[in-house]
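pls ignore typos typing on phone
NAP + seq
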Amino acid sequence: MKIKNIGWIGLGKMGIPMAQKLINVGYAVTVYNRSKAKIEALSSAGASTAESPVQLVPQSEVIFLMVSDDQATREIFTGETGLLNAPVSGKIFVNMSTVSPGISQEMARMCREKQSFYLDAPVSGSVKQAEEGQLVIMVGSEEAIFHQVKPLLDQLGKLTLRVGETGAGNSAKLAINTLLGFYAQGLAEAVIFAQQHGIQTQDLLTLIGNSALGNIFTKIKGEAIVANNFQPAFALKHIAKDLRLAQQEGSHTPLAEVVQNTFQQAESTLGEEDVMAIIKHLNPINESAATN
Ligand code: NAP
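k done
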């Protein structure tokens, strides 16, 4: 049976464009967000609204979550007005947030007890890729339920790959974001080193962009460095959270230890800025040198 009715929980930087995408391709979408102000954009685009997670369940066949972390996931499933307080038999929950494999396994178990299904389906890519339906989606779930949901996920991403059972999507995502931490800190350190030796930042970035190391991350974050603009596309607090999760999952390799420490130290002052604001932490006496 073709899925038509979608529930969407979490209208942050990623949730808004992703839910919008599903509305654009014709799904009936009901949205919920903890703070009400963010609902307006989607309701004026044609979404129905729910006052709580539990109220969103009856009219939704598949319910997506795109929220911050483990704690948000737990509250949405098990809180006073949480999803699992509704009759959920046959419902499919797809958690696209970056969370721990452990919380996914726990929620999947609770869903199974109520004859419903849980998939972890975190994403790689940021706001731009979400707007363009070009995310990379990694899924942990039973195979049969994956095939039911894949056509929906394919509307949001350019690649949807099942990597294993529940929690496997989360593990893959933590591996990718560990690499993202290396890239961000590595790019920042390369720029700082070049600046210290009189190289124009734009020149260095042009060289990197035309070398084997050029990639979309270096391009977008290089532009942010040159503009000295660290408005968050991917907030630094989220990569700090992801590196912490990876650490809890046993990531203790040499580089991982370094980036975990760097981002934890930066989180209290730069957490609300973009991940690339790590350059300010690494080079605090020369904040504006990025524009040189
Ligand atoms: P965000 O802009 O900070 O939005 C977070 C969302 O979670 C908001 O809707 C927020 O509600 C909700 N939330 C937080 N705590 C909650 C709670 N206790 N109960 C209910 N709702 C809660 O985050 P984002 O950038 O969209 O990222 C969402 C997830 O995707 C994160 O796990 C992040 O690591 C991951 N991710 C982000 C990017 C990116 O580039 N931004 C890329 C890939 C993956 P309020 O509006 O009420 O605060």
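The chain has 13 helices and nine strands. The pocket of NAP is lined by residues 10-15, 33-35, 38, 66-69, 71-72, 75-76, 97-98, 123, 126-127, 233-235, 238 (CB under 6 Å). more later
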